[in-house]
Specification:
418 residues; alpha/beta; OB fold (Dihydrolipoamide Acetyltransferase, E2P); Rossmann fold; four-stranded antiparallel beta sheet; 11 helices; 33% helix; globular
Length: 418
């Protein structure tokens, strides 16, 4: 059995608590009531005790990171689930050729976030098909590695801009399942108070401005944000997500040119899934290598396997570092494929069956789970537990979202600035 250790409410003001020091290493036995870590509150440094006995299976937050009351910070369980020992790092090198060696805690975090996005999207699709959820949806099944790989390379105070296909970006940047589901149900407790819906999710407090549904519309905005960061010398970076269809818009050329001439800290992230709505990329572009566009503006572009989360993370980390040191911008073209329609009523009849089969066999979550179990010796039971936990959490969140408070007529005139 496994147990979640949640951050107790130790702050007198409700402010986040910072992880100061882990007192127990991953793999070590833990007794009920034993101090597991130290946290810094607004008043003092305090210890957090285990509520269950077992072994420390996962440390979910690193030293120096803030945590809110109720946030899961560790997993404690029986020895049968133990897949790593204290301070262990794998000696294997990732299949993509990346040079880093990753610890199992980090890898499982990537897997859990990708799987959360997939299961969230599948659950939302079912709710729409059942006629329970209002509005429309544009989903990202198959593209989970792009969002997770890029957002993992960012700092908490970095920002992203997104599109109408933004659920995965939001979850990867740290928005909660609950605030997203509440938003999709139109509730006032949603991340945009029910006024954004599926196509405009975001939370500026977590580094994501609400999604912009206009194709390429986020590109000049990201450049403007990056200019602001540079002028204020905050050392922040913007990651700007858009699809391959955005390359044909004037806003793309204006935005990247602005970023280029002023060396702005923005990573332009093109999720190239081969289709702009239902039109294949080779029908509208002679040169289908999108990263080549960067050369004409005088900055670096790179094409990456967008279904390899570690390859994406490596490329994004390098790009973010370049931007933070004043060498940006960078254009990352992430080759991926959506396994669902452009929108909820799209049967994808324009995708050839053999092409779809090839990309389905290259599913980013399946690939990564195989890597974890074969090259990193992670127990498949650990992955099964993660899936079951996500299923359970999603089901509970859906029930809460259905009961979430709906707006009243007076809300029509709030948050209106013009």
């Amino acid at each position: 059995m496994k147990f979640e250790l949640k951050m107790p409410d130790l702050s007198t003001t409700g402010s986040p608590m910072k992880i100061v020091r882990w007192l127990v290493a991953v793999g070590d036995p833990v007794e009920r009531g034993q101090a597991v870590l130290e946290v810094e509150t607004d008043k003092a440094t305090m210890e957090v005790e285990a509520l269950n006995a077992g072994h420390l299976l996962q440390q979910l937050l690193p030293v120096g990171q803030d945590a809110s009351a109720g946030e899961v910070i560790a997993i404690i369980g029986s020895a049968e689930y133990l897949t790593v020992t204290a301070n262990s790092t794998t000696a294997a090198t990732v299949a993509s050729g990346a040079s880093h060696k990753y610890n199992c805690q980090f890898l499982l975090g990537l897997y859990e976030r990708m799987l959360l996005i997939r299961q969230f999207e599948d659950r939302v699709k079912a709710l729409f098909l059942e006629g329970i959820m209002p509005g429309t949806i544009h989903q990202c099944q198959g593209q989970e590695a792009t969002a997770v790989g890029v957002c993992t390379a960012l700092r908490e105070d970095d920002f992203i801009t997104s599109t109408f296909r933004g659920h995965g970006h939001a979850l990867a940047k740290g928005l909660t399942v609950q605030e997203l589901l509440d938003e999709l149900f139109g509730a006032t407790t949603g991340c945009c108070q029910g006024k954004g819906g599926s196509m405009h999710v975001g939370n500026p407090d977590k580094g994501m401005i609400p999604g912009i549904a206009i194709v390429a519309g986020g590109i000049p905005i990201a450049a403007g944000m990056a200019l602001g960061f540079k002028m204020r010398k905050t050392n922040q970076v913007v990651a700007c997500f858009f699809g391959d269809g955005a390359i044909a818009e004037g806003a793309f050329h204006e935005g990247v040119n602005m970023a280029a001439i002023w060396s702005l800290p923005v990573v332009f992230v093109c999720e190239n899934n081969l289709y702009g709505a239902s039109t294949r990329i080779d029908l509208v572009m002679k040169n289908t290598t999108i990263s080549d566009r960067a050369k004409s503006y005088g900055f670096r572009g790179e094409t990456v396997d967008g279904n390899d989360v570690l390859a994406v993370y490596e490329a994004a980390t390098q790009a973010v570092d370049e931007c933070r040191s004043g060498e940006g911008p960078v254009l990352l073209e992430l080759l991926t494929y959506r396994l669902t329609g452009h929108s909820r009523r799209d049967p994808c009849n324009y995708q050839p069956k053999d092409e779809r089969a090839t990309w389905s066999a290259n599913d980013p979550i399946t690939r990564f789970s195989q890597l974890l179990t074969t090259q990193y010796s992670i127990d498949p039971a650990e992955l099964t537990f993660i899936r079951q936990q996500i299923d359970s959490d999603l089901e509970a969140a859906v029930k809460r979202a259905k009961r979430a408070p709906q707006p009243v007529v007076e809300d029509l005139t709030t948050d209106v600035f013009a």
